[in-house]
Write a structure and sequence with these properties.
A hairpin with a 5-residue loop joins strand 2 (about 75-80) and strand 3. It contains 15 helices and 4 strands. Helices cover about 45% and strands about 5% of the residues. The chain folds into 2 domains: about 5-145, no CATH class; about 155-330, no CATH class. It is mainly α and about 325 residues long. It is globular and about 60 Å long. It binds zinc ion. The site of zinc ion has 7 residues, from loops. Zinc ion binds next to loops.
């Protein structure tokens, strides 16, 4: 994988221990990840350096298409004369809609990574997400937690009924990649660093979870939607937790529809937030709820899931949709 002189002492020790059977089993590739420096030691598709699994597994469609499958990270970046960096992952365009969604997702993920020509690549434990100070500590942490980190987040948001722009937005929200002030400030991209407050309440820091879930206006939107379905809900702590479990015991069929409602709602709240920031215009939460109902109904109609099912029935008794014969096509 790399030449041993360039390894940190901890990693060098681990490489040595890896030769025993027991440790070889514990030290699976999922147990550590790379932090990029020069990118000359990390395989772009095969090492774990973005998220918790190999990019090959996270973006199988792109991996298949890439003409650069065995390259290191350093071979996947291009620097312009003024030092700007961009990614060339060896993909030929055009892409179909699904591939394009994956491509956008990958690029937005990679935006958070910079190759640093003056730094060595480093290894880090994924379990504690902190550099371990000793080999013993590292092994202890790994033995203790056999958590399955493999989690295909793309699946949570991907649905063929939802326009890819909206799925992408939902996916970015889960990844913490929406350009809210908290994120911009963290990346030093805010013009005025003291202006990190929510434009709605002017009180809280504008975080993704605050905007999309916790702010009282957003909370009213969600409450309105759950009430529409006669479902009691508890405010979740974050967008990811919310997105992987819409069900709350509502059943598989309802959950399918709620995946659509969820994506539509995150998107609608985001547009309303932009209206406040860029146009100073506020929309009543009840209007947003109506728009979401209509939007999801249109998606269902387009997919012919709503045949002979009327908008007014949907607006008042959404559960009846699940009993309609055309729903089984969904
Ligand atoms: Zn607020």
């Amino acid at each position: 994988m790399c030449n041993s002189n360039s390894l940190s002492p901890v990693w060098r020790e681990l490489k040595r221990l890896q030769s025993t059977d027991e440790l070889f089993e514990i030290l699976s590739p999922q147990s550590f990840k790379w932090n990029i420096g020069k990118g000359t030691q990390i395989l772009f598709w095969y090492d774990i350096w973005v998220g918790v699994s190999k990019l090959r597994d996270q973006f199988p469609a792109l991996f298949r298409l890439s003409g650069k499958k065995n390259e290191h990270i350093a071979d996947m970046v291009i620097f312009s004369e003024n030092g700007l960096m961009w990614w060339d992952i060896g993909i030929l365009f055009p892409l179909n809609e699904y591939e394009d969604l994956q491509y956008q997702m990958l690029m937005s993920l990679l935006r958070n990574f910079k190759v640093d020509l003056y730094k060595e690549d480093e290894v880090q434990w994924t379990h504690s997400l902190e550099k371990v100070s000793s080999v013993a500590e590292g092994v202890r942490v790994m033995v203790k937690s056999h958590i399955d980190f493999e989690f295909d987040r793309v699946k949570v948001v991907w649905n063929k009924l939802v326009p890819s722009k909206i799925s992408t937005f939902h996916w970015l929200a889960i990844q913490g990649g929406i350009p809210v002030k908290e994120v911009l400030s963290y990346r030093n991209c805010l013009n005025n660093s003291s202006d990190d407050k929510c434009a709605w309440c002017l009180d809280h820091i504008e975080s993704i979870d605050h905007i999309l879930l916790h702010y009282s206006w957003s909370h009213k939107v969600w409450t309105g939607l759950f009430k529409w379905w006669n479902i009691f809900w508890v405010v979740p702590s974050n967008v990811l937790e919310f997105s992987v479990d819409w069900s709350n015991g509502m059943g598989i069929k309802a959950e399918k529809v709620w995946k659509l409602i969820g994506s539509a709602t995150f998107w609608a709240i985001w547009l309303a937030r932009n209206e406040v920031i860029f146009n100073g215009s506020y929309t009543c939460w009840a209007v947003i709820v109506s728009r979401i109902k209509l939007k999801v109904f249109q998606w269902l109609v387009n997919a012919k899931v709503c045949e002979s099912f009327q908008l007014y029935v949907w607006s008042d008794h959404p559960w009846l949709l699940l009993q309609s014969p055309s729903f089984d096509m969904f």
